[in-house]
Structures are given as structure tokens and as C-alpha cells.
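FAQ

Q: What does a record look like?
A: Structure on top, sequence underneath. For example:
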């Protein structure tokens, strides 16, 4: 069965850490695809907001 796991972090290093931790829990042959995206939005009060996200498609 195919499943997805979605990650969303404010810092790219946090995303990297979370994805690497998850990848340790699955077999390499079960990994099908990783999609990565960055969104940027201006925030008048706190500056720029970054959103780093990844979606992993894997098989169970």
C-alpha cells in the first residue's frame, strides 16, 4: 500500500533533520519519491516567513 508523510518546518535544517529521522524508519526499497517545496511570505510585524516542506511517498 502506498502512503505519504508530510513535513512542514520553519527552518531548512529542521526539515532536513525530521526527514532523515523518518527515512531511518523505512526500508530504502520502500521509498518511492520525495517532493520538496519552499514558500516565502512577507510579514509586516516579524519580517519574512519561510515554510520548508517535504512530502515522502513510500510503500508499506
Amino acid at each position: 500500500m502506498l502512503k505519504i508523510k508530510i513535513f512542514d518546518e520553519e527552518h531548512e535544517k529542521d526539515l532536513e533533520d525530521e526527514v532523515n529521522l523518518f527515512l531511518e524508519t523505512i526500508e530504502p526499497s520502500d521509498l518511492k519519491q520525495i517532493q520538496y517545496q519552499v514558500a516565502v511570505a512577507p510579514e509586516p510585524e516579524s519580517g519574512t516567513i519561510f515554510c520548508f516542506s517535504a512530502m515522502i511517498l513510500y510503500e508499506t
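Q: Is there anything notable about this one?
A: Residues 2-59 form one domain.
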